[in-house]
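ingest -> fold -> write
write: protein_1
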Amino acid sequence: MYINPHIFREYDIRGIADTDLTEEVAEQIGKAYGSYIKSKEIIVGMDNRLSSERIKRALIKGILLIGKNVIDIGITINPIFYYSRVLYGIEGGAMVTGSHNPKEYNGFKLCKGDHTMVGRQIRELKDLIQNNKFISSDTGKVILKNPLKEFQKMVKEKIILNKKFKVVVDCGNGTAGIFAPAVFRNWGCEVVPLYCESDGNFPNHIPDPTKTEAMRELIAAVLRGKADIGFGFDGDGDRIGVVDNKGNIIWGDMLQILFQRELLKKNPGEKVIIEVKCSQSLYDDVLKHGGKPIFWKTGHSLIKEKMLEEDALIAGEMSGHTFFRDEYFGYDDALYAAGRVLRILDKTGKSLYELLADAPKYFSTPEIRALCPDEVKFEIVKRIVEDFKKMSNLEESGIKKVIDIDGARVVFENGWGLVRASNTQPALIIRAEGKTEEDLEKIKGVLENKMGEFPEVEFEWE
């Protein structure tokens, strides 16, 4: 049986549902994961995509065939799935989810130990399948459980608010819409729901709060309703997008400024893990407030792994993933992150706009996803890293250094540009930032010229 090798990515398994994730493939992944994980019981959940039920059934069949029991928690979001592992004390967990991707995608987030599996471990699963090395035992059984009430009680107890906030919640018809409005109401908020009806066709917009076009209706609703704040969520509830009371999008890196300032007041000198796509303003603000910023690779699994390695209490990504070990469990929970934002507003009596008014202001592009085939994207990025490193030796290039922990973060005197390969889509991720608009345009020009050397890349600035 053929399995597309490109579905085994750096921090999850992801592909086109109808062609890459057939019942046969999903069953093989279930058998491999069940053989790989030591846990005798494995929690399985799924998002609301049209293909998820089919894929989940096949995954469970594979797990049962090698003798492991399945705790089926049904349709859920990643934060509830992650919490169920804490609640039930079970290491094994497999979530069927396409996350923020278009409706034709789906995939698996797989857990091992304290975090989700990463590159080497995922490749070992692929090897088990290719070599047909599965354990054999009596057939396991399925146990149905629902951790929703316990999750709701937990987040309600952790976030206590005195003010009744007016909050617009846009879930893009993703799975978060089933759960998010109730969580906000339990916090005492007045909720204005936007596309919170579950619909795996995503008829209004893809549930991806990193995309400006997916946030436009949220912005309009916040301004129209004079809301205190707006929150957008991705398809499985682990990414957050925020709109302040003046209709400004607060991207993930700016949101981290809010969180790390609160953290560093309580824990001076604490390490803060910063994903490589994030603004220099976040890095500078961490230093200003006495923290120790550490750049790291993109990816929820990689960030969580680094946070544990450094014993850090907080980490964040440009994409809206935020990881709290401060007062929480260390996984990315967009609902809890929203609660932390509201708690900060409540305690300070200020709006989000006011709280971030003194943050360093640079000029930046959004995160650009340039289509590029999986077969060539890593080789193209490797060549780009090499080219920019050679250029950095030339004084006239203006390049001060190249940070290559994940692609090329090319540092100039007055800004930076980034090119890296996506680990979830056939795409390159491109972003630029400058201290002035003129600096930004110069850096954009450098990156645009470089992208023009590769006809395989479909690239244009938004």
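write: protein_2
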Amino acid sequence: MHHLNSLEKRSAVALALVFSSRMLGLFMLLPVFALYGRELTGFSPLWIGLAIGAYGLTQAILQIPLGWLSDRIGRHKVMLGGLALFALGSVVAALADSVYMVTLGRVLQGAGAIAGAVLALAADLTRDEQRPKVMAIIGASIGLSFALAMVLGPLLAKWAGLSGVFWATAVLASAAMLLVAFVVPKSVSKAPMAETLALPQSLGAMLKHRQLLQLDMGVMLLHLMLTAMFVVLPSLLQNYGMQPVKHWQFYLPVLLGSFVLMIPMMIIAMRKSQEKGFFLLAVALLITAMLIVLLLPGFITLTLAVVLFFIGFNFLEASLPALVSRIAPAGQRGSAMGIYSSSQFFGAFLGGAAGGAVVQHFGYQALFAVLAVIGLIWLAVASTLSIPPRAQRLSLAVSVQTEHQANQLAAQLTALAGVQEVTLLLAEQRCYLKVSSAQFDTAQAQAVIAAAGA
């Protein structure tokens, strides 16, 4: 029971490949478009940003609805349809001779928003106690795809041009469709919906939850800063004498080094229960990186700044979703994560659009000044964040007929030792609990449910 079974291993690997191949295609444009898009009609800093970030807008809008659709018509159908849209957008961008058509292609790429369906299917195919491991594998694959994109993007662009990057993305989408059709297992049951997908009735409450809104704003600003930085970073590297084909030699050691340096921060934060302090330190590293580029121009200082940025970025990218999952009320994690993910992609869109506009009208130094101010605002907001103790989540089947019975059972469960929150959903006939694993006794809870006639 402590290890993934063969179905869970196959599901984890196949879904990680599907998810990461799509993200690889989206990320590969970041290190190359500012350099190789100059021959396109209408090229300007504003359109660099819009083309880079355009996918985020449609991804943010469609992610939650397509998750719902996957619950109605099936996960595989939504995943195949989304990947087909992603492939179509890649072809449109590959054939484009103007920046406007590239941006349209990116909009179509983002419309294939399959994240909700992928994560819901991962939940369907795994046992409760193994689900976090599978989600972690899928999450890690996104980080690897980003690092790989920073290496492959410049090499592909030099070998086959900007259109070659998009053709490679179309091939990746096609390969992912084959994986979905022939390798990804079919689900014969559905995981409890409230923990994996956004519930329409829960979205309003999640949008009013102050701590969750702080984290949603945080991830939006994090990806705004990342995308805006790549509006100018490739050009800065070229200005400092680094040929575009060699840019991967900058990105690879920077990303690897920042990841290695982030690990001690993560370990100390968890072991010493200093998560908030290190969270604020990570935001401060982002601000420091922006100020170094602004005040100390030069290749060495730029390298230092990018290393510091990605130390902070990697820490926050790992910490934010874990905090959302911990803070989300029992039975509402799916809704909380849905809004969080949409905020992340909307941040990518804002970063591209705002970053491009600032560079076009005021220059790259103004961009880093603006990003430093944004970081300071985030730091001020994050300083008020309250991080709750760690809790285990679980769900138990019930059989209650009326709201009165549900309320009575919820009150009895709340009185048990170690129970922090109880949410009972009549429509699902399930009870969701957040508990302290050191104090909670599952058998006792099941006995209460049985005694209540549930």
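write: annotation protein_2
The longest helix spans residues 131-182.
The domain at 1-187 is CATH 1.20.1250.20 (Growth Hormone; Chain: A;).
pipeline exit 0
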